[in-house]
Amino acid sequence: MVIEDYKPKTKKFIANNSMVKNNLSEILNLQKKLGENSYELLEVLAEVQGVKTMDDVKIVLEAVTLLSQIKIFNNSNYIFEGLSVAKIKDIITMLNEKGISPENKIEKLSGILPVLYINGGTKRFHTDSGYRLLYPLKGIPGKLVEEPLEIVYMPEKIALEKDKLRKNSFLKKFNQFNKLIEADLYALSLINESSSAMSKSTAVEILKCLKIMIESYKELSGSDDIDKKLKFVKEKLNNNGWNSLNFNEFIIGSLLSLFTECDTDGNTVHGLIHYIHQKSYNAFMSCVEIPPVDININFNSSNISITKLKDWPGTNWILKKMINRLKKSMGRFSVSIVVCGNTFYTYIKSGAESAQVHVKFEPPSTGGVVHIEYQESDTDEFNQLRLLFFKQILEAVGMKVEVIKNQYLNALLDKNNLQNRHQATEAFLYFIGSASYGYKVEMYLSDIVKKGFHAKATEAARQLAKIYMAEGNL
Fold first, then answer.
1. Which of 78, 201, 204, 344 is most buried (most C-beta within 10 Å)?
2. Radius of gyration of the chain (CA)
3. Measuring CA to CA, which residue among 84, 82, 106, 86 is closest to residue 95?
């Protein structure tokens, strides 16, 4: 590569660094020794802070050579962006440590460099329809495949002043949206606690939550389209004897079912809560400009965008674990994540299916919760098998799961069944990883049915969930 072909930043680095200009031929000779398909040493140097001597150049060269040997450099010239020469020396010391496997070295580096270690180097059974399993299934054609080690680069861009202003505006809307979601979660916990017997006082609390949700939804959407549904539900309550009950009296029969049964068209209290939740994300996203994205990752025709509104010590650890799960799934998906302290709101779309996941990484005593609303595109046989697959996984991590009208899945982990923050993290990671693989699940199960194993498809869905839970990824 001639100097004129370098990026503007690299050309500026060369022009402004007298040491580099004076030793340019030596640096280019070092580049030649590395071969045609290697990284561009000058472009790497342009990203490092404080390159002043040829010894500094050789330190950077040694670090990148060591990283290439464990397959982490991956031809990315930005991997040392913003790092000092002293920090790169520390990396070299760690890489030269004896008795540490390449995998462990990469795991350590992920705390220093903007990279993600993706498991690889193991054999996996690949079915002809593209599914990856721990072991072959009888009657399903496929082969064992050696899976290579893979690396993903996760840069976090520096926020510009205009991004900060947009983020502040976005935060205000998110707080309104989060208020709606928290009212939703409180109402659902009351419904779950009172599914067989509910006092009117509890029902009043649920209606208060519904009121908060409606007010927040109206503010987000600028629409009063929900008023007609609310009026209809109120009339149904009155027609079933709501006004004749004392405050502490228990409600029963059809009146109780209006609170506990989820009509997805919004014709019951529970149904209206579900209906508003389904519509709230679109209302939230449409009332703001495109949210400022701090991290954007693309791979396998998939995209992950992350917006950090308020940081939290555990944020990057959870994000890296989550992105590792998504990358390993080999599915095609789009994921948007908003992080506000220890509250994560995730929207994931895979094929025609979608899910909203709200997590507060707290102990149960201080409001820890995981809430998942998943929607299938249809109600056919394969949609049902996939719902069964997700239900098995979520129940295995301790969530209360409800399948509604053979198309929707609602799962909750709160003070009634959440044991600790670790359980919330596991539930979040297991679902995100499996949801990103949704369309592959359907393909695989349809493959079983087409090959004459129709009666075994349901059991296969259960087995797939067990395999997934055993391995932690697909």
1. 344
2. 27
3. 106
Amino acid occupying residue 304:
I
- Other C-beta atoms closer than 10 Å to the C-beta of 196 total 8
Whether 158 contacts 145, CB under 8 Å: no
Beta bridge partners of residue 295, listed in sequence order: 306
Helices (H), 70-142: 85-95, 102-109
Contact 88, 62 (CB under 8 A): no
Residue 249 is encoded by which pair of tokens? 């009296």
- Measured CA distances, 473 to 219, 382, 464 (Å): 40, 21, 11
Min mean pLDDT across 371-385, 391-405, 432-446 is at: 432-446
What is the distance between the alpha carbons of residues 150 and 87, in angstroms, rounded to a whole number? 24
pLDDT tens across 150-162, in order?
555 565 665 566 6
pLDDT-based confidence at residue 113 (cuts at 50, 70, 90):
low
- Helix (H), strand (E), coil (C) string for 321-351: HHHHHHHHHCCCCEEEEEEECCEEEEEEEEC
Q: Identify which has the larger pLDDT, 383 or 418.
A: 418
Distance CA(147)–CA(120), nearest Å, equals: 5
- Which residues, including other chains, have CB under 8 Å from residue 442's CB and lie 6 or more apart? 351, 382, 383, 385, 386
CB neighbour list of residue 309: distance below 8 Å, 6 or more residues apart: 167, 170, 171, 174, 338, 339, 340, 341
- The span from the CA of 49 to the CA of 27, in Å, is 17
Give the Cα separation of 111 and 225 in Å (integer). 48
Instruction: Label residues 148-162 b or e (16+ Cβ within 10 Å = b).
Output: ebbbbbbbeeeeeee
Residues 6+ apart with CB under 8 A from 155: 78, 81, 114, 295
CA–CA separation, 254 vs 258, rounded Å?
Answer: 6
Beta strands in 341-449 (DSSP E): 343-350, 353-360, 369-375, 400-404, 408-413
Nearest CA among 143, 141, 125, 142 for reference residue 133: 125
DSSP state of 71: T
Collapsing DSSP to helix, strand or coil, 402 comes out as strand
Residue type present at position 367 = G
* Digit-coded pLDDT (tens) for 237-289: 989 889 888 887 888 888 999 998 888 788 899 999 988 988 888 888 776 66
Q: Residue 114 has what pLDDT?
A: 62
Q: How far apart are CA 220 and CA 280, in angstroms?
A: 8
Q: Burial level of 120, CB count in 10 A (0-12/13-18/19+)?
A: middle
